[in-house]
Amino acid sequence: MNFIKTFLAGLLAFFVGMCLVVVFWIAVIAGLMGSMEKSVSVPAKAILKIDLAEGISDAPVSDPMAGFDPATLRFSHSLSLMEALRALEAAADDERIQGIYLRLNGGGGVGGAAVMEELREAIAAFRESGKFVVSYNETYSQGAYYLASAADKIYMQPEGGMDWVGMSSQLMFYKGLLDKLDLKVEVFRPTVCRYKSAVEPYILTRMSDENRRQMQELVDSMWATLSGDVCEARGIDPAEMKRLTDNLQVVLPEDALAHGFVDGLVYEDQMDDIFVELGAEKESDDYAFVTLGDYASQVTVPLRGIDAGSVAVVYADGEIVDGEGSGKIYGNTLARTLREQREDDKVKAVVVRVNSPGGSALASDIIWREMELLRAEKPVVVSMGSYAASGGYYISCPADVVLADRLTLTGSIGVFGMYLYTPDALKNKLGITLDGVKSNASADMGTMAPLTPAQRASIMRGVDKVYETFTGKVAAGRNLPVERVLEIAGGRVWSGTEAKRIGLIDDFGGLKAAVAVAADKAGLGDDYRVVEAVDEPSGMAAFFASLDARVRAAFARPELDGVMEEYAAVKEALSQRGVVMYCPYRVGLE
Question: Is 297 noted as a catalytic residue in this protein?
Fold first, then answer.
């Protein structure tokens, strides 16, 4: 009888579970169907609306579940920077588009400071067509206002506000926590890499003098670019800008209006009057808006010649790791993609879009080799995104031309190794002890006992060798004396503005500029097409893995919120193996 009860209970649980799974997938499919792109038609008298609801990423999103929200079981669309730039370029020549309405209240955001800079430049280029660009929002973050400053007119809600306080970079240090947990971190870095500060949070309780100096100069340089652009656009004296920012004089709407940051304080319904002043025409009885995402889906890239050659755009986006895979920069995967472009006769030039803090030294070198082989046969141009540092710079330096935005974080030419010793923590905190046997003196290196002097020396030899290789390849790739490279290396990070001054990049420019340079070097004239080499994961395994990750994040994020990003950064840093070319800093615009 007990067996029958147990069997029936198990059977019931099985069927209930199956029903719940079916209901879940019906909901997911319904959400997917409800979120699928509708057939969009652009009205004859349309206004292009940029609200950032879609989000704009540096590289195309290949995640099959990107944009899926487990809480609502719906999908949101995301644009790549290339899609956004193409759409804005097409809109300037499209007779149906009267102008742009910047309504920057969406939650999608922009993927990095350099992406924001390139988007702003594209909006400014759109204005040259003679069409209007107008911005309205209740509140402006610094990043949103920077973007809005490209508009002809800027408006704000009368009770809104502005976050205009300057730029900062804050670090969290974990040494005190590690000490409490009896976890010991040992660091290996060349003595000349005094600016290679990725390891500092684990061995110090505050910034070193060198790190403080470089980060201060970095935020000063980036803020000078950002505030300088705003000063130029709004006719504000730089000295007055500094005074206003230091004294928080543009936080309230009336102050922003008085000091020329905005052109008027109005409610959103009053924007209809503004559109009348700008000469916009209504479609039927109202103004017709088309979002940037919807418009981008309608933009087709003309093939400028039947036999046109191609400029291939290859994306190196994320942390550099060993092996093959997707979602990060896997050394062997990216090397294969570069090799495919080299072997494709239709591809006449290649743009490599690098947006990476670096990572594995070995994977970086594998990619570097393919960059060298590619450059020997075809023009190669690197377009740096928001950051191309450490290993990200290592894979960039072989290119014929290196372009970056002024807000790009780059350099960090340095290496390190980091070892986390855990036996004391296991014993003292959890009561777990380790024991074992070994065939040779260092067979259990790093697991059973602290490192010996011989083991430390061996690790340090490897670190020094990689640093020598790194600086040598930068010298060769950038045509600089090794002595000069050593002066600007040492792990120091630079803004794009400073990188041009010291020779780490050739010029300022974004993704579109890089494509134009590549086409010119290949002698293609105007007769070429642009193709994006994107590896998209396929199969149910990729689908379920992505879904699992998003469900986990959906449950964890409400509880941890901002700590999630810090946790991910620590996890990423401590997961590094071997000698590492890695820069953890990202100075962005909120």
Answer: no
